[in-house]
Design goal:
The protein is mostly beta strands. The protein has a domain of 104 residues: Thrombin, subunit H, CATH 2.40.10. It is built from 2 helices and 34 strands. The strands form 9 sheets. Strands 3-34-33-32 form a 4-stranded antiparallel β-sheet, with no helix packed on it. This is Essential protein. Keywords: Repeat, WD repeat.
Length: 454
């Protein structure tokens, strides 16, 4: 069946004519004469086992595993993934799922990004996004799914546009105006606008329609701009962005004028703290900002009022307390803020009182058969995300190669994702047509695994 013959009611209730449905992706890939036939479950598992055997034979990868009492390498062969994508030849630093289609975009240390399907077994490559000259470390799909953007460590930004309802992607524009891109964030409501933070502290805002065009450049930070969040997103007459930096400042910007609405520094934030992470609360009224030495700042978005600055972590080495991940739950009954650090701790704060309700420690649950000492960083938290019917399931990826799901009400681990032989740098969730969800990981060994969630 050609794309032109598809009925309107087959498009996943998507009014955007550029997009295709779950079934249509499968049909399109099936029409590719060069596509390999899907492997059976046994063949799929044999391939994964073979990949893991190769890892065991590679001396360079020994540091990714534990050692038994005789000094022999031990690799965890447990694998409950349903599929995998292994086109990358280096670590996967960026992962994003399409908002409407079963598509995933990954970017890695091999200077390449790919768009591939996460509903087929094995996944099928839809597009290879070439043009980067260094590691692809940032990017994502636009909220309407019509565009994709990638950014690399040489500062190159490339935009891609979906054609044939997502069957293919064509280059839409390319710029290189900074030395290094650190993050990229799309505006959640004005879908064709995105911002990026650069290593020189500058912040650039672009529009994608009708072409890739710079809107403004924001200068205030003197050191790398480490993260940003769009705020006041329902006000369509304004364009407001918040950013943080290693120089210890947090700024609320009016993007249209290029001026700051307010700026916080050493005085307001109780000392000079390198900020590395930020997350907006579900109400949009509060933003949490995490520091590289464990400080957690809670700030009122409208006025820049510092609600509290909390010291997290218990290590004497401040960098071990670095906050690597933040997540808010959208639960009305149990509003929480989750904070994860380099040492493998996850702290759950009550989002009203900012008191700790519970702590998870990955070090205490990581398999350690030979009782060797776990070094700092081996269990570092890399991403946190609340999900589930009541938004009280907390997903956590870490450098020990496992993704865990906790029920935050009782602290029980309700699911684990196994299959990686080294750290997991991030993950993304993708809905299925049947109402379920898939979790797709970004592995430090260059492999993405797809898990069907229970």
């Amino acid at each position: 069946m050609s794309l032109e013959e598809l009925n309107e009611d087959q498009v996943l209730n998507d009014p955007n004519p550029e997009m295709i449905s779950d079934e249509q992706v499968a049909e399109i890939v099936a029409e590719d004469d060069g596509a390999e036939a899907p492997m059976s479950e046994d063949e799929d598992m044999e391939d994964i086992d073979r990949m893991e055997d190769d890892e065991e034979e590679n001396d360079e990868d020994h540091e990714n595993g534990g050692y038994d009492k005789n000094g022999n390498i031990e690799i965890d062969l447990r694998n409950n993934s349903c599929s995998y994508f292994d086109e990358h030849k280096d670590s996967i630093y960026m992962i994003s799922t399409h908002p409407k289609l079963p598509l995933v975009m990954t970017g890695g240390g091999d200077n390449t990004a790919y768009i591939w399907t996460c509903h087929s077994h094995p996944p099928k490559m839809v597009a290879e996004l070439e043009g980067s000259t260094e590691s692809v470390v940032a990017g994502g799909f636009s909220p309407d799914g019509a565009y994709a953007v990638t950014g690399d460590m040489t500062g190159t930004i490339t935009a891609w546009k979906a054609i044939k309802r997502g069957e293919a992607w064509k280059a839409h524009g390319k710029v290189s105006e900074v030395d290094e891109v650190i993050w990229i964030k799309f505006h959640p409501k004005q879908a064709h606008i995105f911002a990026l933070g650069a290593a020189d502290g500058s912040v650039w805002v672009y529009s994608l329609a009708p072409e890739l065009e710079n809107i403004t450049v924001l200068y205030s930070h003197s050191l790398p701009c480490t993260n940003g969040e769009w705020v006041d997103v329902d006000d369509m007459d304004s364009l407001t962005l918040m950013t943080c930096s290693e120089d210890g400042t947090i700024v609320n910007w009016n993007v249209y004028t290029g001026a700051s609405n307010w700026r916080l520094g050493r005085k307001e934030l109780r000392g000079e703290k390198p900020w590395v992470n930020m997350k907006l609360s579900p109400s949009g009224g509060t933003i949490a900002v995490g520091g590289s030495e464990g400080s957690l700042a809670l700030i009122g978005v409208a006025t820049g009022t510092t609600l509290d600055v909390i010291k997290t972590g218990n290590s004497s080495d401040l960098l071990d307390n670095s906050i690597e991940a933040l997540a808010f739950s959208n639960s009305e009954t149990l509003p929480l803020l989750a904070v994860g650090n380099v040492s493998g701790q996850v702290y759950l704060y009550d989002a009203k009182s900012w008191k700790i309700r519970r702590t998870f420690d990955i070090n205490s649950i990581t398999d350690n058969k030979d009782e060797r000492e776990i070094e700092v960083g081996e269990t570092a938290v890399t991403q946190l995300l609340f999900d589930g019917p009541l938004d009280l399931d907390l997903y956590c990826s870490s450098m020990d190669g496992v993704i865990r799901r906790w029920d935050v009400r009782n602290g029980a681990i309700t699911w684990e994702g196994h299959g990686h032989n080294s750290g997991i740098l991030g993950f993304a969730l993708a809905p299925t047509l049947t109402g379920g969800k898939r979790l797709v990981s970004a592995g430090d060994e260059g492999v993405s695994l797809v898990f069907e969630l229970e």
